[in-house]
Amino acid sequence: MNVSAKMRKPLRVRDYIPKGNGKERLGMILMPLLITLVISALLWYMILPPVNLQSPLFWIMMILMIILYILIKGLYGAIKKEQVVIHRAFIVLVCVLAFFVVSAGYSAKLFHAKRYSQILKVDEGSVDLIPSAEGSSSIALMDTSSAEMLGDRRIGSLSQVVSQFNISGYTQINYQDAPFKVAALSYDGFFKWNANKANGIPGYVIVDPVDMSADYVALKEGMKYVPSAWFSQNLQRRLRFQYPTLMFSNLHFEIDEEGNPYYVASVYEHKIGLFGGTNVIGALITDPVTGETTYYQAGSVPQWADVVYDGDLICEQYNNYAQLQHGFFNSIFSQTDCRQITTLENEDEDLYNDYGYIAKDGDIWIYTGVTSVNGDSSNIGFVLANERTSETRYISCSGADEFSAMKSAEGEVQEKRYQASFPSLINIEGSPAYIMVLKDANGLVKMYAIVNVEQYNIVATASTQADVIEKYRHLIHGETYEPEPEKDYSSYQAKTITVSRMETLVQNGDTYLYIVDENNQIYHAKYADVLGMLLVDEGDTVTILTDGAEFILAE
Q1: Helix, strand or coil for residue 278?
Q2: pTM for this predicted structure
């Protein structure tokens, strides 16, 4: 009886405290906790999770801290040859893990399909929203890879820049009512940052996707707080220290209407449960020269900040809107009234969204087609979405999808083996058409193409944007288009020059390239006729054919 009674003796708090004197017992509790906190602080400094219950990264960090505490306490007890009690930490770990898993499951589309479908508001639109042929200069046809090539060539001639810096990712913006791509320079590793951190990043690259030119803009003061910097100058770390509870993403480079540099980050929250229904609620805008940051709510973001709602997020939200209105199981089985953004398959056979850009009303709008969920090669409409405000319009119009149009354009000049860029939309005489560029194996733009949306066998190609639009107009009316006769260059003389300066100038809708040789002689040509000059930098020697004023490149 005494043994049974002793076994039934209730456990007391002191039974969980390690044996020994008070100092040893306290050390067995505090030392593992202190070591855990120090290591966790270092991990937080490197990983930078927000202190926010809606962040999965925060919960993962908490779980790692508990596991770390258990391991350190067990190891510390083994070193001290003391018995330690860690099962209470296991209980906490199991509870935290269970809460995390249950919260993630509760936030799923299975339980909140209707709410997911209502995050993005979509209004009906008309074909009139599509830019007309007269406003074709508002359409950014150049893809990012072509912009990267131009930017690399531009800074390649700046020896001090190219030896220390790389070009970071490009952002499509609306700058002074025209589409441009911009990219800041970035440090080429830790040692390059350490050597240049006092002065910062010296400038950025701006690319005009309409006339296909790139320029390097040197800043009066360098950008010290950038994503490629280290330690306290790292912009993401600086933002985390200033706003420890905010969840932000999509940190990218933009410029205002005066050309001043800024970094913009989208601030978001989850509207469904703890982890579901991502939606942007504002933006952090940082001056990278001074490090000053301002938080703007979504409705009060400055007009020049073009990308607040990332295009991929808008595509995801539209798919939820178009597929979950009649419930989760309908989106899986019967799929009544379900549609989706057109998708492209990459080399790894993964599907991803792609979209074009349109400069409209002072903002950048993304454009992409909408197709049925059965994966056919036709569109039932188009989506235009404002990346600053998330205003989204659906335009009902059936026809071929973008990728069918790209193949049709490539087939028109198949002997040249050109590759089509992702197209944009253009309104020609009240009818939507795809417009795109065709590039050679080196990524140089060689031609333009227009494909009719409803009848993608109607294709027009030409060497300039103006010519392809005019040729397409004649084509849809059943007329023969007679372009201007090719210029006779038989009287031009070959001449080898050293290019000391190059400038572009737009005249009557055409882009002209002006070059100056070592003797200050000026030559000019239509840019479309001398696209090979994209590979020429100031200071290079090149052979041209010229009459003393106009020129073309010698073969």
Answers
A1: strand
A2: 0.83
